[in-house]
Specification:
The complex is a heterodimer.
Chain A (H helix, E strand, L loop, with lengths): L1 H42 L2 H6 L3 E2 L4 E2 L2 H32 L2 H16 L2 H23 L9 H25 L3 H8 L5 H12 L1 H17 L2 H6 L17 H8 L7 H35 L3
Antiparallel strand pairs in A: 1-2
Helix pairs in contact in A: 1-12, 3-6, 3-9, 4-6, 5-6, 6-9, 7-8, 9-12, 11-12
Chain B lengths: L3 E12 L2 E7 L2 E3 L3 E5 L6 H8 L9 E9 L2 E2 L8 H6 L1 E4 L10 H12 L4 H14 L3 H4 L12 H14 L4 E5 L7 H14 L4 E6 L2 H7 L2 E6 L2 E7 H6 L4 H7 L5
Parallel strand pairs in B: 4-9, 4-10, 7-8, 8-9
Antiparallel strand pairs in B: 1-2, 1-3, 1-5, 5-6, 10-11
Helix pairs in contact in B: 3-4, 3-6, 4-6
Classes of the chains: A mainly alpha, B alpha/beta.
């Protein structure tokens, strides 16, 4: 009897310890990043770092503006492509596709969502970049090596849409049949029902899916690194090479050679990534809570 | 000669190869309240949903026979005409499903689809429908709140208002009171009695007492077959079929 109680106690406490350890990692990483990036902030004001576009570690210049602009461009453009494609194909799969097609297509999309990003990066490097160089850039009258912001955005959107599709399929599937019947039975067509009822009723999950897609696009490192060209200059077109926050760390960590200031600057970049993801999580949480109230059925 | 709004001829429905309705031949009088009774799982809801062709949105449904509405077989109609068939038949489901929008927009939903009304006409029509179901005074100050904030009984009346907004001829009610508390249920029952003057009401119910209280005409379904149909008076006081007698006396349920 007593040993059973003891085991129960030990079991409970062990679980608590493990959980505490995992959640304390959040603070540990944050403190680590913050403390290591203080060095660069001592000699450079945060304004200078965020708004100067000159990155020249040898001369002690660590302006991130160009990188931030590229990050916004790549992430934004990728989502701009991925969101409509994902929503429409998810709604097709759930509401319109014949049953057999629906069942066959899902595993493929789920696997796509799990393919390692380096695979996407390699494909993009070998096939997408030349295509952009030879066909797409000339079509828009631009010259490009193919290693550019545009290619990075395209490959990111391709990586993001299986995630959004997969989550949207789940949320559209969860809409009760009776809710759709309620709309259909006043004489709404299927498209009207989809547009006004299914999309609205799943708005909270769509928002969650998009945020997850944003997280993936924003933080994606290796695939972007392989096709973006690695140039730190304010871009004048999407066909310019660039560098994102995440890909910058991947390109530069090998050449640090223990220059403390350079190392500290990269830690600052990591800190920015950390904070943005955190802020987006909070924003997402709040929007989701509001949306759930607003679009409840 | 009575005026029949809906008539079925040899209606058979199979869902996933299971025969749910077998050779249904019924007549439903216009502007009266017809109760469809029978134990659960006997095909009442399926019968109801065949009338506005809602069965077909599910997979593997086979329908044969005829469903004549005002003399026309609705099973012959093209897919593009189905929304018009459904507009003619309002549906009230077991559990109320307000659409994910405001109270006002719920009622305006069908109106926006079918009619080109300006803001004033729309507001008037919405008010009229909400008054019809006795909800106006309860919600007039919060028309733009999400409909999900209403109580379940209010939601059910809202669904009724949404259904009558598009001026249907028939109201298909699928056990509309089963999810409600007794007072809300009574309100709905009274409403149905009032509405049957303007609409043909078909009420699926599994409570005999409810059918006795409100029905003019009764159809008794058992294992997907029509056992007996007739006026409420005849059905309850002078049932002909032994199975009906057994059901009425509570021997089978």
């Amino acid at each position: 009897m007593n040993t059973r109680k003891l085991r129960d106690l030990i079991g409970t406490k062990t679980l608590l310890l493990i959980t505490l350890f995992v959640s304390s990692l959040f603070f540990l990483i944050f403190i680590l990043l913050l403390s290591r990036s203080l060095l660069v902030l001592e000699s450079h004001s945060i304004i200078e770092v965020l708004f100067s576009s000159i990155w020249n570690p040898d001369a002690g210049q660590f302006g991130l503006a160009a990188i931030i602009v590229d990050t916004i461009l790549v992430t934004g453009f990728a989502l701009l492509i991925a969101i409509p494609i994902s929503l429409l194909s998810a709604i097709y799969i759930v509401e319109y596709a014949p049953r057999r097609l629906r069942k066959t297509i899902r595993p493929f999309i789920d696997v796509l969502a799990g393919v390692p990003s380096v695979v996407y990066g390699l494909c993009a490097f070998l096939f997408l970049a030349p295509f952009v160089q030879n066909v797409i850039a000339p079509f828009f009258g631009a010259q490009s090596t193919g290693l550019c912001i545009f290619s990075a955005a395209i490959i990111l959107s391709i990586m993001v849409f299986p995630i959004i599709i997969s989550l949207c399929i789940e949320s559209f599937d969860a809409i009760p049949l009776s809710l759709k019947e309620a709309s259909l039975s006043v004489g709404a067509t299927k498209w009207e029902t989809v547009k006004k009822v299914v999309f609205r009723a799943s708005a909270p999950s769509i928002i969650a899916a998009i945020l997850l897609g944003f997280g993936r696009a924003f933080g994606e490192t290796i695939a972007v690194n392989m096709v973006i060209g690695g140039t730190i200059r304010l871009p004048s077109s999407l066909f310019n090479p660039g560098e994102t926050l995440a890909s910058l760390i991947a390109s530069k960590y090998g050449e640090l050679m223990s220059i403390p200031l350079h190392e500290s600057a990269l830690m600052l970049v990591a800190l920015i990534l950390f904070i943005v993801v955190f802020l987006f999580y909070i924003l997402g949480f709040l929007t989701l809570r509001r949306a759930k109230k607003r679009w409840k059925y | 000669m009575e005026n029949y709004q809906i008539e079925t001829k040899n209606l058979n429905v199979q869902i996933q190869k299971n025969s749910i309705l077998k050779n249904i031949n019924i007549k439903i009088p216009a502007k009266q309240l017809t109760a469809v009774i029978g134990p659960s799982g006997c095909g009442k809801t399926t019968l109801l949903k065949s009338f506005n062709r809602l069965l077909e949105i599910q997979d593997e449904v086979n329908i044969s026979g005829q469903i004549l509405v005002d003399g026309e077989n609705i099973l012959d109609r093209k897919a593009s005409e189905i929304p018009d068939i459904r507009k003619k038949m309002g549906l009230i489901s077991q559990k109320p499903y307000p659409l994910p929008m405001s109270i006002f927009e719920n009622v305006a939903y069908g109106l926006r689809i079918h009619h080109n009304k300006n803001a004033k006409e729309l507001a008037e029509a919405v008010q009229y429908c909400l008054e019809e179901v006795g909800l106006w005074n309860e919600v007039k100050n919060r028309l733009h709140d999400p409909a999900s904030r209403l109580s379940v009984g209010q939601q059910q009346r809202l669904c009724l208002a949404r259904a009558i907004a598009v001026q249907p001829e028939v109201l298909l009610c699928d056990e509309p009171t089963s999810a409600l508390d007794p007072i809300a249920a009574q309100q709905i029952e009274k409403l149905l009695l009032k509405l049957k003057k303007e609409y043909t009401v078909i009420l699926v119910t599994h409570t005999l007492r409810q059918a006795k209280r409100v029905a003019d005409y009764v159809i008794f379904l058992y294992f997907g077959m029509v056992i007996e149909q007739g006026t409420a008076d005849e059905f309850f006081n002078n049932p002909k079929n032994p199975e009906t007698k057994a059901y009425l006396s509570g021997e089978i349920s």
